[in-house]
Predict the 3D structure of the following.
Amino acid sequence: MAMDPQPRPRSPLTAEELAAVRRPFRGATLLPARTYHDPAIFAFEREEWFFREWICVGREEDAPDPGTYFTLDLVGEPLVAVRGPDDRLRAFYNVCRHRGTAVVEGDAGRLVRFQCPYHAWVYDLEGTLVRARHMEDIEDFAPPEFGLTPVRLETWGGFVFVNLDANARPLPESMGDWHDHHARQFRRDFSTLRRAARLEYDVAANWKIVAENYSECYHCPGIHPLLNRLTPYDLGVDFEPTGPWKGGWMPLAAGCETMSMDGLRHGRPAISGADEVDQGRIYYYILWPNLIVSVHPDYVLTHQAWPIAPDRTRVVCDLHVEADALARPGFDVSGAVEFWDLTNRQDYHVVELQQRGTASRSFLAGRYSNQEASVHAFDIMAADRYAMDGRRTAREQRTVVENTRTTNRKAAAPS
Ligand code: FES
Ligand SMILES: [Fe+2]
């Protein structure tokens, strides 16, 4: 694909701004406020991060059988993922090679071939152009060279990832120890999960503000009184990754079984692999840049923060459970869905206020409290990537409050 003619840009942040974020967190400042507002920085993130890194775009269940497909908008790029007759999931730009029309309409469906709605060029499910009327005497036109433009697609744990950069490292390599961590921590991946519910939000804030909000519970006593009763805000442990992710866990309070309106599971079974220790914890992760995963005793919640504009983000929140639990008669996760809808709305109210305040000329960059090492962990993943100097800043973790399976205590330099 001839898609990479541009020289790599320079860092959009100054050396001083980068150094201030990359200090140990008690001495660090937050990302400069303009990173939440500046259209040039938004364009940099789109080009350098969302178009060059592996981005989760859905679940394998979204195209389960040969001929099923789903379309997506990857920060403005129209794509389609389709399962071929060989059962392999592939992704393409959803762009006809004739005059650029979107070949597929709608969010999802089933087809036997792609037929462009404009002049009816036909592509098979592997993207090959198989019919183009009145092109037979056109000079330098070879149909095999005019297939749908492919996009790299790989999966992990049922999650579908795409990467627009043909030269990117394979997904497992680029995840660092994400895969090993989950294999060790949960003795499983997430491929047996199925989506039980979806919540969507149009948030008037920058996508990184959404991610930072998710990364701390300093705000929980005031903003989430119910959540704070289930998982007290000041208890928890951060992991020490060597990959492009951050994470940790918080203990459930005595008598609480999960995150839901009444803190109870009402007979919902534990997700597979969750032992007694896991059933007393909520695990929180962000896989760079925008896949947010929380592992609960009986369900896995994901949030994805999709940048729309510097000050606008679409958040998609999915609740996943084991496929066999979902199939049981009377299975009900409404108490958990209601809990997260309440919690999400509480969060998005304050992040919208933060978006407005950080636009003020009076505000340059804030400071972290000692409850926000995990916000810093997200911000240095951003700062390291703004810097474009190949350096990976070491992180500091929140201190241990309980025994943990993960005993590695050394500072880690994530990739
Ligand atoms: S634009 Fe697709 S066939 Fe003409
Ligand atoms: Fe929150």
